Amino acid sequence: MLRVAIIGCGKIADSHAAQIRRIPNCALVGACDREELMARQFAERFAIPLAFTCVDDMLQNARPNVVHITTPPQSHYALARQCLEAGVHVYVEKPFTLHTAEAEELIRVAQTRGLKITAGHDDQFSHVARRLRALVRQGWLGGPPVHLESVYGYEMSDGYAKALLGDQNHWVRQLPGGLLHNIISHGIARIAEYCDSPKPLVIAHGFVSPFLARLGERQIMDELRVIISEASGRTAYFTFSSQMRPCLHQFRIYGPRNGLLLDEDHQSLVRLPGTRRKSYAEKFVSPVAHGLGHIASAVRNVRTFLAADFHMKSGMKYLAESFYQSIVRDAPLPIPYEEILRVSRIMDAIFQKLAWLSDHACTRQDARPPDISVG
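and the corresponding structure tokens:
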């Protein structure tokens, strides 16, 4: 029986606890939060036997094999290192760390101590994401990806966003990349999985939307456009927007022969054939084929629902279970360390670029920001 504990008893911790309880051969043995009431309430809701306000006390008394860290990102590095040095495997919520240097150090400590660590890129393990990965591995693209497009929409009208806008001291505002830093790793991870260059070129442009500007907000960037280019010629676009409608969470991947369209919200996957039909058949047959792809996804979703496996956070359950299996069976990690680091490096490059733009916002309009290579 694998013993699991959670540090940080906020909103996202509820999702972790709910999914961990669905995994066989593991048990939640401890909850920790610096606010005692948060820890106790969380432990009561999920029938966790022990609640703590001190991480050392939790590690010593609950004796977990794995710890999930679901605190604000500023504390990820210190807490993960503390757990690793205590001999415990670690699952860290996104973003993995604030900077690549911290990510590299955590991975080094884990490897040195014979432990494992992973990042909470759970969208990469939803039902539809796993279907896309299988088709890519089966050769549907006709070769390595040529171009990738990831779009991640964000609603500024929910309770979390309202709390952020209303609190000038909110912890999200203290992140190097602000709101973007806390959100975009899901969309960037889509791209990073299919990149292979250690030094992609990153060009980024971010700004405060007119909507937020009208509310008097000047600090929070909620619009981001990114171009990523590799030496091999592979390219990628990443879009983050709080204003685009519909609010999309999509990923497109194009190969030399065919492409694929993933829609996370609808859990749909549509094949995009690379060949065109002759004459007017292209106008009639292709729309029908596209529609049939959505219908097939709907049928598959119904089957998954009837099998009681259509949870909103099913990707988190799959990622955690795969991580646990990698520990118990000494199997490969669900997310290679190179991929975790690639996400971190791309994000570092984006925020370096945005910092340059912010520093030069009041200078000459024709000033050209530097292109940034990840390294």
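(Above: one complete record from the training split.) The longest strand covers residues 26-32.
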